[in-house]
Amino acid sequence: MDKSIIRVKNLQKIYNNRIILDVDHLDFQESKIYAIVGPNGSGKTTLLKILNLLEKPDTGQIFFQGQELTNKSRPEVLKIRRKMTLIDQNSFLFHSTVYDNITYGLKVRSVPTKDQRDKVKHALKMVGLSGFEDRRANQLSGGEAKRVVIARGLVIEPEVFFLDEPTVSIDQRHQDVLERIIRDISDEIRTTVILTTHDLSQAYRLADEVVSLLEGRIIKKVPENLFRGVIEEKNGVKYFKVFGNIKFTIAIVSDKVGPAYISIDSKDIILSYEQFQSSARNTFSGKIIKIIEQNHLVKLEVDVGIFLVTTITRESFQKMNLNLGRKVYLTFKASVVEVY
Amino acid sequence: MDFIIEGIQKAFQLIFSLDREIFNIALLSLKVSLTAVGLASLLGVFLGFLMAMKDYWGKRFSLALVNTLLALPTVVIGLIVYSLISRRGPLGVFGLLYTPSAMIIGQFILATPIVIALTHSAVQGIDKRVRDTALTLGATEMQSAWMVIKEAHYAILAAIIAAFGRVIAEVGAAIMLGGNIKGSTRVMTTAIALETTKGEFGFAIALGVILLLIAFSINILLHYFQSKKL
Predict the structure, then answer these.
(1) Max Cα–Cα distance, chain A, nearest Å
(2) DSSP state of A243
(3) B156: number of Cβ within 10 Å
(4) Which terminus of chain A is more exposed, N or C, with fewer CB under 10 A?
(5) What digits encode the pLDDT tens for the residues B171-223?
(6) CB–CB of A105 and B230 under 8 A?
(7) CB pairs under 8 A between A and B
(8) A163 DSSP β-pair partners
C-alpha cells in the first residue's frame, strides 16, 4: 500500500500582501518521483522550500510521515529537516575539495569520520564520478559540479530529495546523465524525489506523477502550450496577446479581460502543408524546430513567432514525410484555447 | 649629515649584536599588540559577522558608527582611556595607568572597529548561497554561520592582520597610557620618539628598522591572504 511521506493542507504563503502560494491539499507518497511543473513565478521554488522546512508558510499544516509539524520545537523540526535535502537551481559548492563538500552533511550529523570515506565513495559512484574526491570544486565543469552537488545530497541518504530545476543551464549530454541519476536514486535507495521543471516532456519522462502549478495554485490538468499574456477586446471579439511577442495575437473565447494565462492542448492543433479554409480562426505558419517521438505519437515543436507544440500520430508523421525546418501551417479553433 | 650615517651604522651594530634592550622593547611591543588584536578579533569578528548577516533596527547607524571609529585618532583614545583609568577616574582603583594592560586597552579600542568593519565587508562579500546550502544539508543556524566564516576566513585573517599593522605602529595611546617607562611600558614607537629627541639616533633607527621589518612582513602576509580570497 502507498504510504504518505509529506502531506500539506490549506497552505498559504503571502509575500508583499500578495498570495504567492495557495495549495488546498497535496500528498506525496513514499519512493515515488514527482514533478512540479509551471512557468516562472508560479511558486514552484517557494513550495519546495516550504516542504523542505526552510521557509514557513503563513497558514496551513505540513505533515511528515503523518506527524503534524506546525507546533514542533526547533530540535524536532531540525531532526525532520535532516531527513530531507534540497538541491537549489543555482546550486553552490563550497570552496574546497569534492570530498570536503560531500562530507559536509555527514559532519553536521556527527557521522563518525571512519564511515565517511566509504559513504563518499558510494555517493560519487552513483553519480558516475568515482575518484573525484581530491578535485577542487572550482575546477569542475558545470555538469560535473551539478553531479557533485547531487552526490553531496545523496550521501546523507535522505528520505526525500528535492531538486529545483535540476537540468536548467546544463548541456544536453549532462541532462541525460542527470535524468538517469535521478531515476537511479529513486530505484536504488527508494528515496522520494520531488523535482520542479518547466520542461513538460522531462516531467513526463521522469515522474510517476506530475503536479501543475499556476500562479501559486494547483491546476487539475497539466497544460501544454502555456502562455502568459493579456486579453484584449476588439469589436466584441476577444484576443490574447502573448507576453514576449506582443504582435502575436490568438483569437480566444472568454469572459475575461486583462492579464491571463492560456493553454492549448497539442492534440487540438491541426498541422498541414497548405493553408485551408475552415471555421477555425487561428492559423499560423512556421518551421518545425523539434521532433519528439512518444510511442504512437509524435510531438512537433513549430516556431510560428511563439513555440507551439502539436501532437500527431506516427502514421500521419510518416505519411506526411515531415522533417526539421519544414514550413507548415498550424490551425486551431478559438474555443479550444483554455483561459486561466 | 654625518649623524645620520653614524646613526645607521650604530643601528645595524645594535641589531646584529642582538642588543638586549632593543629586543626587550620589540618583544614587549609584540606582546602588547598581539594581545590587543587577539582580544579585538574575538569581539570584532563576532560583531562584524552579526552586522553582515542579521537585519536589526539601527543597522545603518551602527555601520556608520563603526566606520567613524576607524578614523579615531589614537590620542583621543589615549585621552578617553586615561580619564577612565587614572587614579581619580571611575576605574582608578585598579591601578592600570602606566601598565602594559593600559596600553592593551587602548590598542584594543583602536583595533576593534577595524576588525568589525573589515569582517563585515568580508562576510558581506560571501555568496548568500553558502548559508542556504549549509541549511539544506541539515546544518543548524550555528553550523551554517560557521561555514560562512570558513568561506570568508582569508578575508577575515586579512582584517586581523590589518588591525595588527595599525596598533603595532601607533604611538599616541601607548605614550599616554603606558608612560614610556623603561623596562615596563617602553615599546618600539614610544622608544623611537624618546631616543630621537635625546639625539640617540642609532638606537632610534635600529628600532625603526625592526618596526619596518615587522610592517613589511605584515604586508607580505596581508597580500598573501588577499590573493587567496577566492
Answers:
(1) 76
(2) T
(3) 23
(4) N
(5) 999 999 999 999 999 999 999 999 999 988 888 999 999 999 998 998 898 88
(6) no
(7) 51
(8) A87, A195
